[in-house]
């Protein structure tokens, strides 16, 4: 079968298609024929070598974390799935490897695909949906009426965070570029600031929660627009942020929180519920498998809405 791999850190040019054996099903795993795989910033950060501490430097490496597909075979100790079930799921964030014709996955890491969404939409959910849920379930407790700022709201996490924050009764301000304005309004944003012609840091509004998804608003800047007791979420922390946040949290009432994604079956169930209730899951770019190089060249440049996904259709 075909699998996308790389054997050294670098740009999209290090990606290549390898012929490898179809993985064998273990007692507790399920073999899945992959239909679609989401593209995430984590893919290129790991591939570039930016996250060596977590990903290790052993090659070859696979790429692609969240996926959807159809169950092909089930392990003898599995209980939940049957051949033919349509599922979606998530692989180990730092190992990846979903861009492959078949993958063998622990039963706990998949869920039945909601019938009302496509394979592309299902693949788009696990990483960014779980990240948004983890922010609201473990890092901050949103109360009705809280003022929340989502900086970089038109992308993957922003799409889920904006809609989830609205369901919790928050007043949501989003910062997006020209291309994202209509989308965040559709997702329920109360206020929209266009970063291309306005600097949110120069406004006089103060927030209970600031989530930076752009990597361009550090805590040192965000604290100007944070209320006395408030929280800032850094979504791409490295060792420096871990140390800095520890000391800031000792002395400041403005808390500095770090997102470190821990996927769970509970998040998969919660995302299934949101999808079934009709939450918008926008996949604005779909690339066929053989266009992987184009996909990983274009998507990091941004300017798309929600998620970008690679489909395996051209492999059939
Ligand atoms: N820590 C973890 O466990 C974990 C897990 C998942 C993701 N993440 C990280 O979380 C971050 C967000 O992920 P994502 O999937 O939501 O990324 P994404 O889909 O690429 O979204 C990023 C957003 O930032 C916006 N942006 C760019 N420049 C901006 C600026 N100057 N001001 C405001 N917004 C700006 C982009 O808008 P344009 O399209 O206009 O450029 C885009 O909508 C990434 O760094 C990712 O690696 C971390």
Automatic annotation (TrEMBL):
Task: Show the Pfam families listed in the entry.
Answer: ADH_N, ADH_zinc_N_2
Q: Name one GO molecular function term.
A: oxidoreductase activity
- Judging by the UniProt lineage, the source's domain of life is Bacteria
- InterPro entries, per database record: ADH-like_N, Chloroplast_QOR, ER, GroES-like_sf, NAD(P)-bd_dom_sf, Quin_OxRdtase/zeta-crystal_CS
Q: What is this protein called?
A: Alcohol dehydrogenase zinc-binding domain protein
Domain annotation Enoyl reductase (ER): ranges: 10-310
